[in-house]
Specification:
Blueprint: H1 2-56, H2 62-76, H3 79-86, H4 93-111, H5 121-145, H6 151-157, H7 161-186, H8 203-233
Length: 243
């Protein structure tokens, strides 16, 4: 009787192990596909931007030429929050959510919504930073998932952000600042009293709050990356399937 129970327990354990391996294989396959697709998407953006500048000799009109592709791939990155939430990626949902949603906000509610800022140099600054960063990041995840990670990609992933991250933040903040006069004059996305809902919302002051939120958030995210850098480059064990 005891032997039968033990055999049943062993069989159940083997079944559970097979299920876990299957789930792991499916998760790895999906993450590999996702990261390849995102690498390709940002490469397309890079090529499009370079080609535009070589043909036109100016950055004016560049954002409009890539807006549709940028909005698609940046919005698609919301899946990364889901990856963290369901546990197939071992990264904080909050950290990933802040990073992804701040990018989506910049694309949809600032640059695409306020045409007057699209030709600002600050827009080109954060676009170039985003593109370089994302090509590096997604190619890093792709090669790592395939267990063939070139050292130069690993080096770039954990060193380039030291300069790129602050430059990207500067570009984003300058763009929001440039948008403030247009937002104030137009009253866009604002809700004035009296109204049916008896609620007031001023997008102009909301953007100021967003700018101020960079003060506590930027150091936290930046030092998070510095900690990751120390763990990886100093040889400590780290799971690199994170977003």
């Amino acid at each position: 009787m005891a032997s039968g129970e033990e055999d049943g327990a062993v069989e159940e354990k083997e079944t559970n192990n097979k299920k876990r391996r299957t789930k792991s294989a499916i998760a790895t396959a999906w993450l590999t596909f996702y990261n390849i697709a995102m690498t390709a998407g940002w490469l397309v953006l890079a090529v499009t931007m370079i080609r535009f500048y070589l043909q036109k000799g100016t950055h004016k009109g560049l954002y409009k030429s890539i807006a549709r592709t940028l909005k698609f791939f940046q919005t698609f990155a919301l899946l990364e929050v889901g990856h963290c939430a369901i546990g197939i990626v071992r990264t904080s949902v909050i950290v990933t959510g802040v990073q992804v949603c701040s990018r989506i906000f910049m694309v949809w509610f600032i640059t695409s919504s306020i045409r007057q800022v699209q030709n600002q140099e600050s827009v080109i600054l954060f676009l170039v930073v985003w593109t370089i960063t994302e090509i590096t990041r997604y190619s890093f995840y792709t090669f790592n998932l395939l267990n063939h990670l070139p050292y130069f990609i690993k080096w770039a992933r954990y060193n380039m952000f030291i300069v790129m991250y602050p430059l990207g933040v500067i570009g984003e903040l300058m763009t929001i600042y440039a948008a403030l006069p247009y937002v104030r004059r137009s009253g866009m996305y604002s809700l004035r009293l009296p109204n049916t809902y008896n609620v007031s919302f001023d997008y102009y002051y909301f953007l100021i709050i967003v700018m101020l939120s960079y003060i506590p958030l930027f150091p936290q995210l930046y030092f998070h990356m510095l900690r990751q850098r120390r763990r990886v480059l100093h040889g400590e064990i780290i799971v690199e399937k994170d977003e």
